[in-house]
Amino acid sequence: MKIKHYLQLSLLSAAIASSFAQAEIKTNYLANVRPLIKFNELTRTEKVILAQQSQLLLRDLYVNRYQKNEFYGTNPNFSGHVDPAVKVQEVVNKIDSLSTSDLHKNLSQIFVSQRDLHLNYNFPLPHAAFISFLPFNFARTASASNQNEVRIGNIYAVFFDVFFPDQRKPQVGDLVLEYDGVPIQQAVNNAVINGNGANLYAGFSRALQYMTFSSQAASLPPAKDKISLKLKSARTGEEYSITIPWMSQYDDADLAPALVKNAANTNTANINALAMSNEPIQERYNQFLARNLNQDSAAFTRQATAEPSIKWSIVIRGDKKLGYISIGSFVPSAVTDNGALAIIANLLRNQLASTDALVIDVRNNGGGSIVYADKLPQMFMPGNATTNSARLLNTSLNFKFLNQDIFKQYWPNWVQLITDAQKTNNRYSKTGVFTTPQDANTMGQMYYKPVGVLANARSYSATDLFTCAMQDNGAATIFGEDRQTGAGGANVLEHGFFNAFAPEVFTALPGGVSMRVSWRQSIRSGYNNGSMIEDQGCTANVDVPRSLSDLSNGDQTQFDKIADALLAKPLNKSFHRFVSPVGNILSLPASTRSFSLEVANTEHVKVYVNNVLLKSHYVGIYGNPRAVSLSLPVKAAGEQYQIAFVGTDAGHTPLWNTKRMVNVTN
């Protein structure tokens, strides 16, 4: 029996070999690998460095510090929120009484208590190599009376078959009544702090995640080796109990001593690429699901693109067609940000052009590039898109750090903002943008039918920014699987970045530890101008919580509600179309002085060349579309320029627009 069991373990390890690492992913009981989940000993000097560098980040750079104190209040113990600057000073004061393990635990808990997934104290290897998980996950559903329920969301069946074949296997949809002997609602409340969710909905969702999945890069392993559950069968109503061991996955290569090294980042080649807003726990969780959840349970087939994080589909509903785009991350893995935007633009102008409405699914998207998120809304609106802005904490350290020659060259706007702030007693600088209005509107509108964005409480960071921007620009209806998005409103930077540019202040972190800090705080624009995203997130226009049926039918019930709402919206009667097929680039002879376009229900058509108005044509076309002749600029052969046609009403409010690059030929 033992030989057979070890053979099964070996086969399982081979079956789930990681596609993104050379070494094999190993799976075992947490109880068996717990001795390997450890910290290498630090010297006193190294402990002091970690405590003092944590203090610099939390006291002088952490832009959400005061917001968190005001939003949650403070608590003198670790059962709730604490003022991080006060608490980290206590750690500095008692450094000589702390073991290496105690130091890591104390500092980590201070970071975690802020409920800010942009603020991270990352444990070193070998501790960080491990993931603890149960062979299923939990999902929040809404009951008939709209009460929160916790149910079995997915089951990783292979683990039951190999590790505990004699254990009763729960079924998807079974109701969770108790977790380790505690009523489920109380168990969720107990897990909220460690789950790190930033508001009521994110708190609930992240707590559910934490109760079945824990990355030891960011948190300690579960205290117990097993967990007991009391469940109620969704099919029969029978109540039953099971006891399940915690499992562990790890890449054996991560346990090599050579990998335990300082985490300083010396790559300073491209500081303009640091407009990032993402959270790594969701990314690790998504990777875990991709490895271990073999089936795609979506209600309809999704087509792949050259970028794995972007998928699409067309769903037929009667005589209507609903377009669908899934964006799983704002960190493209196979293309650049602009490449990802080009893929989406191509879908909108070609495969999805004839659909009657569009759903953009950003559930469980942990964020990424702010610029990518900033540039996307323009494709869905007739006028110019506005972007979210950000501000810095007004501290002397921020002022000194930014007033270096390299930042004066590459980030002059941020240098000016902190310089101006230092002349005041204001807590924050004024706001600046990552993406200029011109850059946020270079591509123009590409979809002209009703648009919906489907988000949830794990739509975080740059995904918060995108969802809020679509709402603030009036570009889409926001459908919420949870009523609020994850509420991560900041640009995040690694401690290694600060060390690379100011090593005399930011000492390289010893022992393989790394840290991140929320550095620039996001502020909304448009309809919600001045509101913060952190903690509040984006509130849905329409609630579409998952129901029990969604767990088994691939969210078909939820999708039907969204489809019905979008397809019922009236279409814009104002539109344009090209007389003959047009690609992304127009090739026009230098002698051509006009261009024909069919328009309807449009008062004026304005022609812009490189964002400068060339001519405004009064057309006054209502009812059936008619062709109009629009001015082109005088350009020599070989030149290239961007042309934009913008249809407006009588008050010059944009109704539609389209932009193309023009190559002038002989």
UniProtKB/TrEMBL annotation:
Annotated keywords: Signal
InterPro entries, per the entry: ClpP/crotonase-like_dom_sf, Tail-specific_protease
Keyword Metal-binding: no
UniProt keyword NADP present: no
Signal peptide start and end residues: 1-23
Domain Tail specific protease: from-to ranges: 321-491
Domain of life: Bacteria
The protein's name: S41 family peptidase
Native organism: Undibacterium danionis
